[in-house]
Design goal:
The protein is an alpha/beta fold. The chain has helices spanning 11-23, 34-43, 60-70, 83-90, 106-118; strands at 3-7, 27-31, 48-52, 75-80, 98-101. The longest helix has 13 residues, at 11-23.
C-alpha cells in the first residue's frame, strides 16, 4: 500500500492511528513531534504525512510548511482537537489535503488517508 509517517505527541492517539493504518496494509513510521518527523523524512521516502497540529517543540503547521517546501510531492493530512488550530490550518489549504477533527473514528481516519492517497501522485 503506502508508506505513512505519523507525527503525534499523544501516545494513545498515535497508537490508535498506527494500528488502524497497519490494519489497512500500510507501512507506518511513528514519531512524537515535528522534529522527529523531519528526521524520519531525511531517512526515508513516504507517501503521506499525518500530523497533529498541536505538538511541543515543532507543531504540525510548521511541519507542513517545511514538508511542502522540501518534499513537495508528499501528501499532508493534519489532525486537531482545537477549533482555533483548525482555523490556522485553513491558511494551508493549498498544501494540506484535509484537517481531521479529533476525536475521530477508525474508519474516518482511514478513509481520510485513503482519499488523500488517491489524489497523490504515484506511490513509492
Amino acid at each position: 500500500m503506502a508508506r505513512i509517517l505519523i507525527a503525534e505527541d499523544e501516545p494513545s492517539v498515535r497508537e490508535f492511528v498506527n494500528r488502524a493504518l497497519l490494519q489497512r496494509g500500510h507501512e507506518v513510521t511513528v514519531t512524537c513531534d515535528g522534529s522527529e518527523a523531519l528526521d524520519a523524512l531525511q531517512d526515508g521516502t513516504f507517501d503521506l504525512l499525518l500530523a497533529d497540529i498541536v505538538m511541543p517543540q515543532f507543531d504540525g503547521v510548521g511541519l507542513a510548511l517545511k514538508v511542502a517546501k522540501y518534499f513537495p510531492d508528499l501528501r499532508i493530512v493534519l489532525m486537531t482537537g482545537y477549533a482555533a488550530e483548525r482555523d490556522r490550518a485553513r491558511n494551508l489549504d493549498a498544501l494540506v489535503h484535509q484537517v481531521v477533527n479529533k476525536p475521530f473514528s477508525l474508519s474516518e481516519i482511514c478513509d481520510t488517508v485513503d482519499a488523500a492517497l488517491k489524489t497523490s501522485p504515484e506511490l513509492h
